[in-house]
């Protein structure tokens, strides 16, 4: 069974159809990249999968490990094994990163019928994790994304992903706004995360993250539908030729 | 002659239903009554009593208060606590009481002096170099008058609990002195009135925090006068109101000397059909250039029935000043909630977490965290 299955997905936002029949199948151990120009529907796809309000599934289905996500609340999708790394991570002043991570991890544990972790144990685990990722441990004491730089916010998304150990990680433009060092740290986190039981979907504009995290499949999203799929070499073609040639190919 | 305005106060002032205790021989009731007559009286339903019933506050003054004799414990060196009759205090008290509050024409503060069941002063010794344990002003539903005097280059800290009484505090911080004031306002079912007037002299500092939860009616009048160059004022706090609680905070910082700084920062969470009123004012006189003054008030309403009236005011007559002020009232941010939910944190817990964080931003000590019900978060470091 595939881990993530998007079938004939039609989505409306504010009464406008943005996605019109997206199909995608992601199997354990795979890395997929979804590329496309601005306005092609990339963020609509990730927001719909994560359960953002206002994204109305008109037709089709979204399945994670066999379970349909369409009727589930965002937290239930998280329990089912979904993780969305935000393009613009939200700041939550006054809530420390440590407190946030522990609340999230404990919520997952509670859902599995496990008891909450002891604070001491959790802090020890987190310290070890941030060190492994070359993050500054001070990071954990700060307010969630509060006055974080663009790079720090993206690293924080990766840290959350590693804490929650999802089955499918959707990364929305995680490479945008990153300098080379931050890009490498993020790539290291993704490579750290991936194994034969989970899957990664990278949604991106550019090919540069794909130099560090090599995808098994590349899909091109244009005008709300996937117009072309291929292997990693497709990303290089896109880098060279842009999206215009595909647009011409698909125009009715 | 009894003025027309005085008539409306007659019920509160004249036919006393109980015999007030004269808390010090030097209190001249006739003179105070004269002062009241000469002062503009609070007008109902007009600023600064637009949203809070002045009548209820006056009625409370006319109902017998329990007499308390309890003075704050004096467990540190470098500070002296004595009632207004104490020979060590008497002349100081005579000199300052009703002088500091009178500068703001507060009739209620004068009425408080007529009705006070207890009056005492907390005085630092001169030039004490270290702050001893904080003096505790216990909760009381009595009518009290308190004078706080920080001598030159001295330090003083006090923790004040309010609980349904009528309390007027006047503080004088002499040059180079430092006063830390922590005000805790737990739940009460009474009508509570607090008036606080602080005169801050040259190079001295006043730091105050105020944390409040529900009350039937709680009014805090705070006037801080910066009378000396280079003084520093930092006032912050927050509230969490539920049910039909009513909290009204009127805060004015008057810059009357140059080169001083002041900060006002308050966050509030208002739920059910509670009401929060905040009026924050910065006044900068012509002779106060190089002033640095900032005011911020943010509110989150958690129900449709909650009401928030917040008004920042800025009045500047000097050149070369740095000022900012802002006030917001809104609801919880849906994007923040969604972000937390995508991490598996349920909707209700997500809302709690955001509100706790919002309050944690203005909480500076454990007691404050406790009264606002966010003690599980621990105290954020500096």
Quick synopsis:
Chain A has 252 residues and is α/β, with parallel strands linked by helices. Chain A contains eight helices and twelve strands.
**Quaternary structure state of the chains depicted:** heterodimer
C-alpha-based Rg of chain A, rounded = 18 Å
Total domain count of chain B: 2
Structural class of chain A: alpha/beta
Give the H and E element order of chain A: EEEHEEHEEHHEHEHEEEHH
CATH architecture of the largest domain in chain A: 3-Layer(aba) Sandwich
Largest interface comes to: A-B, 32 and 26 residues
Can you count the beta strands of chain B?
Answer: 17
Number of domains of chain A: 2
Question: What do the pLDDT scores of chain B average to?
Answer: 89
Question: Outline of chain A, from the CA principal axes?
Answer: globular
Read across the widest sheet of chain A, the strand sequence of neighbours is 6-9-10-3-11-12
Distance between the termini of chain A: 34 Å
């Amino acid at each position: 069974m595939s881990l993530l299955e998007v079938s004939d997905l039609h989505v409306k936002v504010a009464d406008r159809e943005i996605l019109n029949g997206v199909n995608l199948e992601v199997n354990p151990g795979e890395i997929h990249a979804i590329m496309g120009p601005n306005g092609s529907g990339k963020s609509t796809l990730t927001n719909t999968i994560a359960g953002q309000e206002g994204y109305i599934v008109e037709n089709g289905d979204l399945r994670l490990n066999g379970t349909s996500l369409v009727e589930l609340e965002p937290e239930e999708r998280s329990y089912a094994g979904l993780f969305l790394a935000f393009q613009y991570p939200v700041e939550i002043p006054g809530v420390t990163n440590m407190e946030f991570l522990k609340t999230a991890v404990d919520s997952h544990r509670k859902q599995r019928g496990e008891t909450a972790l002891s604070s001491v144990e959790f802090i020890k685990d987190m310290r070890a994790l941030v060190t492994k990722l070359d993050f500054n441990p001070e990071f954990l004491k700060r307010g969630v994304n509060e006055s974080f730089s663009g790079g720090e916010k993206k690293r924080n998304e990766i840290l959350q992903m590693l804490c929650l150990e999802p089955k499918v990680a959707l990364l929305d433009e995680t490479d945008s706004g990153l300098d080379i060092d931050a890009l490498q740290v993020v790539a290291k986190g993704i490579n750290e995360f991936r194994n034969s039981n989970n899957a990664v979907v990278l949604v991106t504009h550019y090919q540069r993250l794909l130099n560090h995290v090599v995808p098994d499949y590349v899909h091109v999203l244009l005008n709300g539908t996937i117009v072309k799929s291929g292997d990693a070499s497709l990303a290089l073609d896109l880098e060279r030729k842009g999206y215009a040639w595909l647009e011409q190919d698909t125009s009715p | 002659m009894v003025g027309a305005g005085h008539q409306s106060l007659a019920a509160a002032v004249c036919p006393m239903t109980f015999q007030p205790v004269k808390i010090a021989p030097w209190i001249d009731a006739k003179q105070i009554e004269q002062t009241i007559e000469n002062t503009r009286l609070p007008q109902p339903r007009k600023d600064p009593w637009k949203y809070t019933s002045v009548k209820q506050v006056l009625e409370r003054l006319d109902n017998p208060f329990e007499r308390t004799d309890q003075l704050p414990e004096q467990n540190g060196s470098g500070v002296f606590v004595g009632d207004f009759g104490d020979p060590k205090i008497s002349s100081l008290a005579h000199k300052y009481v009703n002088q500091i509050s009178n500068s703001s024409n507060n009739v209620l503060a004068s009425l408080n002096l007529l009705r006070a069941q207890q009056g005492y002063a907390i005085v630092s010794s001169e030039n004490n170099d270290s702050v001893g344990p904080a003096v505790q002003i216990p909760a009381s539903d009595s009518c009290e008058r308190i004078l706080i005097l920080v001598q030159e280059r001295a330090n003083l800290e006090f923790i004040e609990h309010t609980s349904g009484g009528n309390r007027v505090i006047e503080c004088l911080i002499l040059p180079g002195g430092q006063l830390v004031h922590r005000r805790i306002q737990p739940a009460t079912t009474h009508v509570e009135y607090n008036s606080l007037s602080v005169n801050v002299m040259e190079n001295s500092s006043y730091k105050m925090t105020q944390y409040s939860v529900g009350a039937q009616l709680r009014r805090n009048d705070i006037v801080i006068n910066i009378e000396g160059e280079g003084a520093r004022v930092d006032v912050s706090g927050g509230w969490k109101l539920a049910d039909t609680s009513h909290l009204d905070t009127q805060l004015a910082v008057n810059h009357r000397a140059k080169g001083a700084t002041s900060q006002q920062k308050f966050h509030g969470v208002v739920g059910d059909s509670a009401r929060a009123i905040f009026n924050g004012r910065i006044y900068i006189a012509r002779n106060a250039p190089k002033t640095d003054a900032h005011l911020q008030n943010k509110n989150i309403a958690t129900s449709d029935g909650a009401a928030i009236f917040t008004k920042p005011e800025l009045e500047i007559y000097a050149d070369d000043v740095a000022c900012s002020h802002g006030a917001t009232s809104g609801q919880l941010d849906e994007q923040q909630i969604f972000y937390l939910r995508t991490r598996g944190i349920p909707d209700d817990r997500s809302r709690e977490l955001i509100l706790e964080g919002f309050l944690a931003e203005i909480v500076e000590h454990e007691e404050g965290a406790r009264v606002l019900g966010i003690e599980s978060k621990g105290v954020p470091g500096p």
